[in-house]
Design a protein that fits this description.
Blueprint lengths: L1 H15 L2 H21 L6 H17 L1 H14 L3 E5 L2 H15 L3 E4 L3 H5 L2 H7 L3 E4 L2 H9 L15 H12 L7 H18 L2 E4 L3 E3 L4 E6 L3 H7 L3 E7 L3 E2 L5 H13 L6 E5 L13 E7 L3 H5 L14 H5 L1 H6 L10 H11 L2 H4 L11 H5 L6 H14 L5 H15 L1 H6 L2 H11 L1 H4 L13 H13 L1
Parallel strand pairs: 1-10, 2-3, 2-4, 4-7, 5-8, 7-10
Antiparallel strand pairs: 5-6, 6-9
Length: about 450
């Protein structure tokens, strides 16, 4: 418990004091926020659209079992195969079996946070299979040996100069290339991989229950190449991504793009109903959908069940003052920012990651910008309560708050303690939690109660 918390605090401290990092993040997030403001103008009644989205997701999660069974039935009728994975181990075993049967040597991947969650690339590397990220941001991160920094923009923390230097070091390109030149180089490197890949692996933005379809939305076209050229397509999707009906997709596609990138609609929006049919010219010969639980049923039965409505737009990360200062890698988890702090303790354990819910100012901005109106800041408070009730707080903190509660509950005791005693108690028990960069509060020599008594006495005199 203490180790992950200490690592988080240490990483956060480093990033907060890294002016270059903060400048890059502020610049990139400001660009996104400006685009989102413009994108929202496409809605005549934005609040109605958000409320409707929340109601649709509420219904989808309330009937999750039926929706997933309906999806499996329909998808199977289209010639696809559904695999249910209780955890990451089962998902990886299923992928290994498919790859071994296909004698796969190269895999291409489109952007997918759920594959990051199960550490797919490392697993495939151990199997001796080359796994290539084809999303430009993910490709940059893979070259640098780093996980994604942001759930929508994996390389948000890198400037164009950083990327040019990386390409120079890893690919031997000329230094100081322009973003356009860097993109063309990445395209050239990746095109050959699409043509030779044995398997294409994607995530999925939505599971459409009544139609047996998987929806993928992207801007680069790499998702379509990943799914149309290899003979096998594997989509790994968290069970919370379900929506009841195909008619709902017209509501969620623009909402996801508006709050994610500020676009009216992302460039490529694709529905996959199964493998290629006899009348189709391209597409995979085999298609598998792995429905991943991996702790999601813990969310389903928890006090933060509403977090399962999340459509992974990333808007709460861009709005969070804590995320803007400490960055995505400080969290040390697949899902960072406010929504990551809510769901990760339930996907893993409260003991290991419950401290993340305390990394919030509780300003409520995350809730304000959520397209499906999830009460994120309230769920952060709920997680804090669970964390304390389960006894994961440090002993020093427990003692400190017990003393604090006793003192403020009994005024004579509070008045009895001198300012020196109060300062020593705070310094001993609370100062480490207060942080090195903030000035420790100093209790005045005279309490308000004492000053008030003196005021009353002087008034009578």
């Amino acid at each position: 418990m203490g180790e992950t918390k200490d690592i988080f605090l240490e990483k956060s401290k480093i990033k907060v004091n890294d002016s270059k990092h903060r400048k890059t993040i502020a610049f990139n997030i400001d660009k996104y926020n400006a685009a989102v403001i413009n994108g929202k103008h496409q809605y005549a009644e934005l609040e109605i659209a958000r409320k409707r989205a929340k109601n649709i997701k509420w219904k989808a999660i309330e009937e999750l079992d039926k929706n997933l069974e309906n999806f499996e039935k329909k998808f199977s009728e289209h010639g696809g195969k559904v695999i249910w994975a209780e955890d990451a181990e089962e998902a990886l075993a299923a992928i290994a079996e498919i790859c071994e049967r296909a004698k796969a040597k190269t895999i291409v991947k489109s952007k997918s946070m759920v594959t990051e969650e199960i550490h797919l690339n490392a697993f495939l590397e151990k199997m001796g299979i080359e796994s290539v990220e084809t999303d430009l941001g993910e490709y940059i991160q893979q070259l640098d040996g780093e996980p994604p920094y942001h759930i929508v923009t994996p390389a948000m923390h890198k400037s164009k100069e950083d990327i040019a230097t990386l390409f120079h070091e890893k690919l031997g390109t000329a230094p100081n290339l322009s973003p356009k030149e860097l993109t063309l180089i990445a395209r050239e490197k990746l095109r050959s991989k699409f043509l030779t890949a044995d398997v294409g692996i994607t995530g999925g933005n939505f599971i459409i229950a009544d139609s047996g379809a998987i929806s993928i939305t992207e801007n680069e076209g790499n998702g379509r190449l990943t799914t149309s050229l290899p003979k096998i397509h594997i989509a790994i999707v968290g069970i919370e991504k379900v929506i009841p009906s195909l008619k709902d997709i017209a509501h969620f596609w623009p909402l996801l793009s508006t709050f994610g990138t500020g676009q009216k609609l992302t460039v490529y929006n694709t529905l996959f109903f199964g493998p290629r049919t006899t009348n189709e010219l391209d597409g995979p010969e085999e298609m598998y959908v792995i429905l991943l639980d991996n702790g999601r049923t813990n969310l389903l039965r928890s006090e933060v069940r509403e977090s399962m409505y999340c459509i992974r737009c990333g808007s709460c990360l861009n709005a969070c003052p804590v995320y803007k200062n400490i960055g995505g890698h400080s969290y040390g988890t697949t899902y960072s920012g406010p929504i990551g702090a809510v769901i990760t303790p339930h996907l893993t354990s409260m003991q290991e990651n419950g401290h993340l819910s305390f990394a919030s100012s509780l300003c409520g901005n995350c809730t304000e910008v959520c397209p499906v109106k999830i009460n994120i800041h309230e769920m952060l408070l709920e997680n804090r309560s669970i964390y304390v009730d389960e006894g994961h707080s440090e002993m020093k903190e427990k003692i400190g708050w017990k003393l604090f509660k006793a003192g403020v509950s009994y005024r004579p005791l509070m008045n009895l303690a001198s300012s020196n005693i109060k300062n020593k108690v705070f310094d001993k028990l609370f100062a480490p939690m207060w942080g090195d960069s903030r000035e420790v509060p100093v209790f005045p020599k005279k309490s308000f109660a004492k000053l008030w008594k003196e005021h009353q006495k002087s008034s009578k005199d």
